[in-house]
């Protein structure tokens, strides 16, 4: 008789490989020219003559004008610019785009010191994207700096999930950990590191078991009483699944210990995204900061949930499973950098 743990491992292996696309697919498909104009406009607006690289950013848990929040928001404007430059270079091959990108990759890769606060650093996925798209064109010194920095991020987040996990600290089971998993997975795929990817996969599955209830709802929904945070749970996990897809793996249907998967969670959220159900946000949140943001007038922390906030989530999900296409089209189809990366 085959023991159940062995059966479970076999089922996981089948789920990973079944219906998977070809191995080592390109990070981004070539974009149509008309999809690049918004990116060019963003670069013109946000590319600074000198990089904004700093040693540390911190916005998590702060309101405008508190601490270094304002400086951090300004510095982080460089991050999406890197991805935009990479996507523009991929299609147009303008030397000035690659030169500007190389300067930003170098400055941030040498100056920034990761804090491993995943809320502060989740948007560094743009750095990883930029490297992955332009890797072969980067000068060897720039490539080495970017690789070293991305490895520092990926290994750092994996080491913390593997060795610092605190079961009684919600930040290790809620959306914070979704962002850790995302950054570790993107780093592994961008570096083509199979051992790192295996570790990221293990953490992805473990997080599903901690974060998702059997019906697909999330611990954040229980804690914050907000679909805002359901999206914040699922966006990074879906992004991680998109990265794993480039290595021929299907993570959308991987199941955690509760039996739920990202696809089950997307199905749970779907009636709200379609507008069939509505939800009054943060009414019964257990988190004091949610009320502070509401009282400070920040948008989205009171009132009925805005379905458009799930646009990017279902746009990404549609790439993994066409069954979400109708929801995505109703919300908003791929736009911005996503259209330039994945649009055909």
Summarize this, please?
The protein is built from 17 helices and no strands.
Number of DSSP-assigned strands = 0
Looking at CATH, the homologous superfamily is Chondroitin AC/alginate lyase
- By CATH reckoning, the class would read Mainly Alpha
Structural class, by secondary structure, is mainly alpha
Q: Which geometry do the CA atoms define?
A: globular
Average pLDDT number: 92
Helix count? 17
Any idea what the radius of gyration is?
Answer: 20 Å
List keywords for this structure.
344 residues; mainly alpha; Glycosyltransferase; 59% helix
Structure explained in plain terms:
This protein has a single domain, classed as Alpha/alpha barrel (Glycosyltransferase). It is built from 17 helices and no strands. With 344 residues, the protein is mainly alpha-helical. It is globular.
Q: What layout of secondary structure does this protein have?
A:
Blueprint lengths: L3 H14 L19 H10 L22 H7 L2 H15 L2 H17 L6 H4 L3 H10 L5 H24 L11 H16 L3 H18 L7 H6 L2 H19 L16 H12 L14 H8 L15 H10 L4 H7 L4 H7 L2
């Amino acid at each position: 008789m085959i023991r159940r743990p062995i059966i479970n491992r076999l089922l996981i292996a089948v789920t990973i490989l079944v219906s998977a696309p070809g191995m080592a697919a390109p990070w981004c498909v070539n974009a149509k020219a008309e999809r690049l104009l918004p990116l060019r406009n963003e670069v013109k607006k946000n590319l600074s003559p000198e990089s904004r690289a700093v040693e540390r950013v911190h916005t998590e848990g702060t309101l405008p004008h508190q601490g270094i929040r304002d400086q951090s928001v300004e510095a982080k404007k460089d991050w999406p610019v890197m991805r935009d430059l990479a996507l523009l270079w991929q299609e147009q091959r303008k030397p000035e785009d690659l030169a500007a990108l190389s300067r930003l990759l170098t400055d941030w890769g040498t100056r920034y010191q990761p804090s491993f606060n995943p809320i502060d650093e989740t948007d560094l996925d743009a750095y990883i994207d930029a490297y992955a798209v332009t890797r072969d064109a980067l000068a060897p010194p720039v490539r080495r700096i970017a690789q070293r920095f991305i490895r520092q991020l990926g290994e750092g987040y994996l080491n913390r999930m593997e060795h610092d996990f605190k079961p009684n600290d919600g930040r290790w089971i809620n959306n914070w950990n979704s962002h850790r998993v995302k950054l570790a997975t993107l780093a592994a795929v961008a570096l083509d590191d199979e051992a790192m990817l295996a570790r990221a996969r293990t953490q992805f599955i473990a997080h599903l078991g901690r974060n998702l209830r059997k019906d697909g709802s999330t611990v954040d929904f229980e804690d914050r009483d907000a679909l805002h945070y359901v999206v914040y749970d699922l966006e990074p996990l879906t992004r991680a699944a998109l990265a794993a897809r480039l290595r021929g793996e299907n993570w959308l249907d991987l199941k955690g210990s509760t039996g739920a998967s990202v696809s089950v969670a997307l199905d749970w959220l779907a009636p709200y995204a379609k507008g069939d159900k509505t939800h009054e946000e943060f009414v019964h949140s257990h988190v004091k900061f949610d009320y502070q943001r509401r009282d400070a007038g920040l948008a989205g922390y009171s009132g009925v949930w805005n379905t458009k906030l799930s646009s990017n989530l279902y746009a990404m999900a549609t790439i993994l499973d066409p069954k979400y296409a109708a929801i995505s089209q109703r919300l908003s189809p791929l736009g911005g950098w996503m259209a330039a990366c994945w649009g055909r």
